[in-house]
Each structure stands twice: as C-alpha cells, then as structure tokens.
Amino acid sequence: MSDLTTHAHVIPKTFYEVSAPSDFTPAPSPLPENVYIKASVPFPTLLDDLSTSEQADCLLGEAHIYERLAAHPHPHICEHYGYAGRDGLLTGLCLKKYRKSLYDAVNDGDEFDEDAVLSGVRSGLDHMHSMGLVHGDVSPSNIMLESQTIAVIVDFDSCLEIGSEVLLKGGTPPWTNESDVAQVISDFYALNKIKEWLREKRGKDTNGGVAAPV
C-alpha cells in the first residue's frame, strides 16, 4: 500500500458544503456565459479536524455578504448572480468573470488609468463602509479590471461587520495592518499600500485620493 493511500482522508461533505438558506438567490439556468463559480475546496492545512464545518461556514459567510451586497449593487463591487447548488446544498457562488486582476495587469505591463482604478476601488469601499461592512482583504489580487478605467472589488470571504473580531481569515501581507478587529482604516491602509506598490512597479506618481479621512 502506498504512502498516499495510507494517509488518505475521506472528507465529509459537511466539511465543505452547507445547506442553502431558503432566502438565498439561486443562480439562473442556464448560467450567463461570462461566469466564475467560486466553490469551496478543502485546504490541506485544515484537514486535521474533519468533524468541523469550518470550510462550509466560510463559504456560507461569503454567500451572506454577496446577498447583502447584491441588494445594494455598486459598479465597483463584484456582480453576484446567485448560488450554485446540488441536493439542497450550497456548493458555490456564481459571480461575474472579469478580464484580469490588478496584480496580473501590472506584472503583464498592461496599460490602464491608475487614478481611475484607485478612485473606483475607493468608491466601492466607501459603499461597503456605508453598509457597515469592512472588506478585510484588499489587495491587487482582489481587484479586477473590467476595462482600463473600471476596477471591481472581489473576494469577500474576509468581509465582516465593522467592529467584529477577526477570528479566521484576515488580510494578506503586505497589504494588511493585521488588526484583530474589522476596521474601516484597515481597508484604507491596504489601499494606500496598493498605491505605493503601483508607484514602485510602474514608476509613476499615483495621487488617486485614497488616503483615509482624518
């Protein structure tokens, strides 16, 4: 018997799938052509205790955020079509698929309007904050470019109510101030780090107006 077989684990569905709440929006059928399905895939680092529903809870938490945001849409926040399901379970989130992340666009040398991108992200964050939410993981990989001037914020599995304790997934270094509490200033800290990163990578002065209000 190989080592792989010896150390294999049977992963219960309860670890990574959860019942879909009745008030959630199911994705349309057929799905739009330009769609990305974010599914819950068990991470090896979480396999020590398969009796938990940690991965499923993370997907459900993000689904709740998308449902809330979808009720108050904003042009710089990811469009949510609804949830993907099977046998009464929530198996994924159906989201609009965007062209490329800001991280990839910068590394590929793409041309885009930095001021417009930063301003758009700031607008999206302001909208979330007005709803009492903190994104919690603003980074170049979580900002998608729909065009050279339109940026869209994605990935809400770290999103929390303002003032909530950060227990599971927080921000991504070096874009995070590693706060233990969900704060508006954490999102602005990340956005200013992105502004500095753009200046270093592209050798331009990006003013963008993203500093947090004093």
UniProtKB/TrEMBL annotation:
Q: Name one Pfam family in it.
A: Pkinase
What are the boundaries of the signal sequence?
Answer: none
GO-annotated molecular function:
ATP binding; protein kinase activity
Q: Which residues form the Protein kinase domain?
A: 1-214
Source superkingdom: Eukaryota
Q: Which residues form a coiled coil?
A: none
User: What is the recorded name of this protein?
Assistant: Protein kinase domain-containing protein
Q: What species is this protein from?
A: Antrodiella citrinella
Q: What is the lineage of its organism?
A: Eukaryota, Fungi, Dikarya, Basidiomycota, Agaricomycotina
